[in-house]
Structure formats: structure tokens, C-alpha cells
Amino acid sequence: MVLRSRLALLWGATIMLLTVLVSSGVALAITYGQPDGNRHPNVGALVGTFDGETYPYCSGTLISPTVFLTAAHCGDDGSTVYVTFDSTYTSKSKLYTGTFHSDPLYNQSQSDPHDIAVVVFEKPIKGIEPAQLPPSASSTKWIRISSSPPSATAGRRQSTNRADP
Asked: How far apart are alpha carbons 144 and 117 in whole angstroms?
């Protein structure tokens, strides 16, 4: 029960943080289609072994010392995964072990807004600053996601900036 409450709270915070990160352009490790080296050290990659070869397969962002934000389609809920923050993966890259938790509402369809997940590390990642967020909500506008009628957007979501009442 306590774990379920903690995960629900984590999902709420993750969704809010994801909205802020996406809208602010923070923590993009690819700039104009090219890797940007060490400019975003809090951006990492899940690393796995497939058909006998080990390589990075999904990116994400360290959002707290123990939480890495990624996509739900990148793993299986509850599985053990490995993350590197090296700008170029090699067999000597430092790997951090964590547990993959996907949004329970993810339904594995394309363009699913619940295609988000977190990797929770048992120990804090040291030496890497988590992604920087904008100033507190009390001094900025909240960003809210609202849906337009399906006929107007063919099911796509639109973001709007509105002042928080």
C-alpha cells in the first residue's frame, strides 16, 4: 500500500516534470540531429544486450539523484535495467543499476501520452547534477496540457500556457 502510494506520487511528479522539461527544451543530448558531447551530462541511456551485443537503446534524463526519466516502451515494468551517462558508450562505461517503472496507464499504442517511465536507483548518482528546472511555480506560469475536440486536432494534444489562478 505504501509502495503504491509512493509510486502514484512519483508518477504525478514525473508527469509535471516531463511537461516542464519538454516545454523548456532542457536536457536535450542531441542538438540539430547531432550528439552534443558533454553539454548535458544528466542525459543518459539505457544499456542492454540484444542478440549477443551490448549497446545503448533508449535515452533519458536524470531528474533527481535517484530517478531517471525515460519512455515506457523502453523496458518492462519491474525489471532491472542499466544506465550510463557517458557521452560515448564503450565496454568500460560506468553502468548504474536501477528498477524500471512504467506509467500504469501506458497501453503500448503509438503516440500514447503515457509512454513515460522512470528508473529508480537504490543509491543516489554522485557527480552528476540532475536536470535544472525553471523557477518555482509561484513565480512562473503553470503549463497545462488540454485536449481540443477530436475533430479539430485528429486526436493530437495541444499545450497551452495559462496563468495559474
From this structure: 20
Using only C-alpha atoms, the chain has a radius of gyration, in whole angstroms, of 17
Do the Cβ atoms of 143 and 159 come closer than 8 Å? yes
| Topology, domain 2-133 | Thrombin, subunit H (2.40.10)
| CB crowding 21-54: b at 16 or more within 10 Å, else e | beeeebbebeeeeeeeeeebbbbbbbbbeeeeee
Cα distances (Å, whole numbers) of residue 164 to 125, 132, 141, 160: 34, 21, 6, 12
**Predicted TM-score (pTM) of this structure:** 0.64
* Percent over 70 (pLDDT), the chain: 59
Domain ranges of the chain: 2-133
